Structure formats: C-alpha cells, structure tokens
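In response to the reviewer comment on reproducibility (Comment 2.3), we provide here a single inverse folding case reported in full, input and output, so that an independent group could reproduce the run without further information from us. The structure tokens appear first.
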C-alpha cells in the first residue's frame, strides 16, 4: 500500500503538486468577481461563496507517531480477532462473514481510518509527472501517453470555471490486445469495445497508474471480457488543489481524445468504482448537456454518448455528507461495519474540498448528487444502459439503491448486482473475500458488457 504525507489541509491525501502548465487556482474563499457568469450556477448566483473548512487531520510529528501506533494495534489485534471470531462466531461484525473476512475487516478499517486521521494518501501519484514508459511496458504491458486537455468550445457548462482551468495535458494509460497496433493519433480500434476507467478514492486517493490498487479493476475486466479491444484510464487531478470541475475536465479531455481517433461513442464503455463511478455519471451528464447545447462535433468527429456505464459501489450522494453543515449535526450513513472512515468532521471537509468555491447548494446538483432522494424526474432521460454493484454492508448502500431507482424511473436499462453483507468497493478486497461473491460481481459486469 503506497502512502505519502499530506502537506495540504486535506484529511485524506497529500495533494499532487500543481502542474507547471496549469493555471493556479484561487483560494476557495476568494471573492468571485462574476459569480453570475459561471455556467450551470445561474440559479444560485446570488448565494455567498462556499468556504472550504480547515482540515481536522493530525499534523506532524503527532501524525507520524499516531500512524505507527495504529499499525502496532493492527498487528496486535489480528491474532486476537482471529481467535475471538473462531471461538465465538456471534461476535463477528456480520454473521455471514467467514473467519478470514471477519478477522481482516477490523484491520482494514483501522488502517483506512488511520490514513485519513493522519492526513496520508493511498496509491496517489503526481498527475503532472510522466512515468517510465519502458517500465510500464515491461512490468505491466501498459502504454502511457499525454492527451490534449479540454479546449475551445467544449469548455462550457459545468466545466467552464474561472478558478479551475483545464489542464494543458492529461495522462492516459492503455491496455491493448497483443495483436493491436501501437497507440497513435490516427489509431482506430475497429469494432471492438473501448473501456475508459475512472479510479475511485474519494477524489483524493489512488491513481490511474497500473500499479495502483484500484487499477486491478480495469486490468482484470479487460482480461475477462474479450469484447474490449482496449482499456484506458485517465489520470485526473485530485483534491484539495483541484476541486470541481477539475476531475471532470480531465475525464472529458480523455473521452474526447478517444473520439478524435475515430472511436465511436457506441464503442466506449465508462467504468468507475466509488468516486470514479460518481465521475463517470458526471461525465455522461456533461456529454448529454454539451450535445443538447448544440456543440455536437469537432474536426472530423462527432460528440456521442457512451455505449454504457459500469459502476462499482458508486459514491452517488455527497449531499448526504453535507446535510448538517456542521460536524455536530452530521448524520452518519448506515453499516458501521464498513471500512470507510465515517467521522463527521472529515466527511464534511471532504465534500467541502470537493465543492471548492461553489456555493453550498451546488452539492444538490445532479452532477454532484445523482443518487439523492430528491433528484427531479427526467434527470437521467436518454442515459445509456448501466450496470451497478453495491453491497448491503457498505456505507454507500442506500445511495446505490436510490441511484438505481432514479435511473429506472427515467427509463434507463439498469442491471444490478447486490452482494449480501459486503463492504464498500469489494473488488479491492478480492484477496481476502470469498470467491463466490467476487465472481458474482465479475460475472455481472462481463455479462452486461456483452449486451452492449
């Protein structure tokens, strides 16, 4: 598990150093000279600017000492929990969990909580730094390239922000079949499906790099579903330096780069886990809104919506984390057995960082909270088919259920796999979880893609 120390005010990550070719962002509390002109916010332009909260994370050297102490506790309690849950199965957090699952979950939960509490990130990388292309080919069989950032008339709507400018370039990693030609601007994928994966990690952790823990998802799905001729991942910018709409700008840039190569929208499948699922939904909405605005084509290519979405444990309702606006009035999500760090001050700071300079009401936007209970009817009209997985033991269960209801209400074809008593983003725990439930998820995703 890769980690590094945060030097920012984020509770969960060390922010990537801003790219030299990216315009600097003003402070989230800086006054906006023309808030009424920000696209997508006309209805709330009179609201005061949202102010980002200071991080509740521990600071050095206390954070280092606390992290060491937490790892000592992990090692100490592992054998204790193993013996306890073996002798007294009723003490397991979920009765259906195997001995291995029950023994490992307290350790996973403590590690994840310690990383957030101490302000460390997991598997994240500098988004402006190029990796070793030779090592990527030798170690992972993956290609890396820079694609042009979002430009011109496509910088409109929610991605047009005076304080968060599009990056000059965005990193993209690609898996290809062995007999496929090398990547180039003129490369065409034929009739095969093309995956675009957006990694999870609460917009703070993880990376598109194939060595990141979350990259096991696109890598394995690419191997399991032969209809994919290629699989790509977008190295989008992370919090706290780059709030909304930075990640969406980068994801849109990679999506458009695929269209410029002659790949049709009906070939592209968007995939994402956790916050990556949230970003995939936002990207689909941006494509829909941009097309509706009349911007339908570029130089020799046409803007088209993707063939479908594959969402694993999508974080679909950040507005729930912002209900009370103060830690004292925060309402925790159900399923406390999940490993996600659910402390009011930290969750509020996360969503606060995500909003950046946007007004607080923006958290209720369909771009931000598509799984909220009060999403208007018709919000998902014309969305492509979706596959959604969530577990009944995870913090995102209820918002996953609401997302599915919202999609189906608007006529979207949705295939759902629900795994009993499983924690968040189960595919990341594949090494310790029972193979039957893991297989259930993979089979559901593979079968769904087969129908596209």
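Designed residues, in position order:
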């Amino acid at each position: 598990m890769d980690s590094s120390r945060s030097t920012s005010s984020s509770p969960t990550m060390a922010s990537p150093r801003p790219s030299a070719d990216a315009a600097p962002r003003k402070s989230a509390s800086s006054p906006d000279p023309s808030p009424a002109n920000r696209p997508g916010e006309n209805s709330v332009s009179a609201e005061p600017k949202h102010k980002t909260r200071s991080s509740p994370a521990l600071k050095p050297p206390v954070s280092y000492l606390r992290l060491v102490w937490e790892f000592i506790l992990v090692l100490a309690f592992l054998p204790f929990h193993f013996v306890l849950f073996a002798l007294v199965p009723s003490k397991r957090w979920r009765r259906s969990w195997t001995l291995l699952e029950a023994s490992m979950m307290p350790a996973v939960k403590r590690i994840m909580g310690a990383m957030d509490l101490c302000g460390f990130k997991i598997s994240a990388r500098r988004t402006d730094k190029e990796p070793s292309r030779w090592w990527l080919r030798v170690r992972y069989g993956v290609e890396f390239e820079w694609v042009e950032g979002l430009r011109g008339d496509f910088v409109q709507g929610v991605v047009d922000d005076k304080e968060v400018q599009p990056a000059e370039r965005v990193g993209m990693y690609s898996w290809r079949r062995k007999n496929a030609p090398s990547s180039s601007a003129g490369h065409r994928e034929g009739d095969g499906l093309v995956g675009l994966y957006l990694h999870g990690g609460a917009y703070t952790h993880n990376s598109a790099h194939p060595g990141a823990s979350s990259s096991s998802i696109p890598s394995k799905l690419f191997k399991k579903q032969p209809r994919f001729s290629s699989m790509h991942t977008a190295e989008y910018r992370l919090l706290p330096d780059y709030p909304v709409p930075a990640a969406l700008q980068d994801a849109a840039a990679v999506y458009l780069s695929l269209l410029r190569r002659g790949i049709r929208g009906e070939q592209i499948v968007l995939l994402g886990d956790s916050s990556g699922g949230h970003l995939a939904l936002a990207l689909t909405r941006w494509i829909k809104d941009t097309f509706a605005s009349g911007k339908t084509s570029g130089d020799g290519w046409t803007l088209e919506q993707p063939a479908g979405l594959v969402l694993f444990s999508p974080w679909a309702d950040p507005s729930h984390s912002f209900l009370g606006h103060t830690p004292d009035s925060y309402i925790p999500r159900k399923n406390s057995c999940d490993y996600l760090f659910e402390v009011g001050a930290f969750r509020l700071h996360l969503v606060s960082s995500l909003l950046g300079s946007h007004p607080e009401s923006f958290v209720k936007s369909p771009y931000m909270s598509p799984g909220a209970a009060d999403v208007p009817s018709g919000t998902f009209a014309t969305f492509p088919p979706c596959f959604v997985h969530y577990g009944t033991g995870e913090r995102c269960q209820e918002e996953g259920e609401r997302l599915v209801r919202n999609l189906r209400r608007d006529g979207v074809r949705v295939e759902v796999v629900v795994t009993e008593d499983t924690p968040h983003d189960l595919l990341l725990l594949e090494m310790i979880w029972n193979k039957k439930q893991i297989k259930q998820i993979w089979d559901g995703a593979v079968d769904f893609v087969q129908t596209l």
